[in-house]
Amino acid sequence: MLRAAVEAVGDRATVIAGAGNNDTRHTLEVIATAEKAGVHGLLLVSPYYNKPPQEGLYQHFVTAANSSDLPVMLYDIPGRTGVPIDTETLVRLAEHPRILAVKDAKGDLASASWVMARTNLAYYSGEDMLNLPLYSVGAVGHVSVVGHVVGARLRAMLDAYEAGDVATATRLHHGLLPVYTGIFRTQGVILTKAALRLLGLPAGPVRLPLVDATDEQVAVLIEDLVAGGVALPEKAGA
Q1: Is residue 103 annotated as a catalytic residue, yes or no?
Q2: SS3 174
Q3: What is the value of pTM for the model shown?
Q4: Considering 103, 106, 123, 161, which one is annotated as catalytic?
Q5: Which of 49, 51, 58, 75 is labelled catalytic?
Q6: What is the tens place of the pLDDT at every residue in 48-103?
Q7: Is-contact 112 134, C-beta < 8 A?
Q8: Is the dihedral angle over the CA atoms 16, 17, 20, 21 positive or is it negative?
């Protein structure tokens, strides 16, 4: 899959491979495979389920970063992994020459602010509802779920903010609120794929343990997308 993505985009985009899991040894194997596929960077999520201590997190990420010459983005999402990457741990990890960025889905603007103030880590919002708030404390972009549906508007919001037009950025943020809410009425993937199908794109089904959206969920999603200014084909709302 990674090789196909790299071949498809050529030099038109940067491909960052999700290579992290809760087993350091397996993570190293995935990194090696991703590197052979020609990816340009690595996204390493905090180990999930086993809830390692902060020193374990530090050793895991450093070991992974040492195994490759590729740049690394850490993925801090305690709601799904069970453990946050603490501020002091992030500050230590920022000393590694290849750990360059953080996908932040911790929902803690104070922690993110402290890390950005004390390091050169590039912060990317990993929680769409907080894209604009994170820009305001120093984030440089987002790794988005709703970007599958409203990518151009997210880019416009970031461009407006970077140009100093906070009023336009805020207006765009407010306009996107129904989309943010709608896509995440389940866990994200289910309704993202449903939204793509509504737009006529070949999203395909989800895999177990996820299940495809019900007719009732799709009906609510259509209302959310329309309220958020997403233009759907006429047949989508039929």
Answers
A1: yes
A2: helix
A3: 0.93
A4: 103
A5: 75
A6: 999 999 999 999 999 999 999 999 999 999 999 999 999 999 999 999 999 999 99
A7: yes
A8: positive
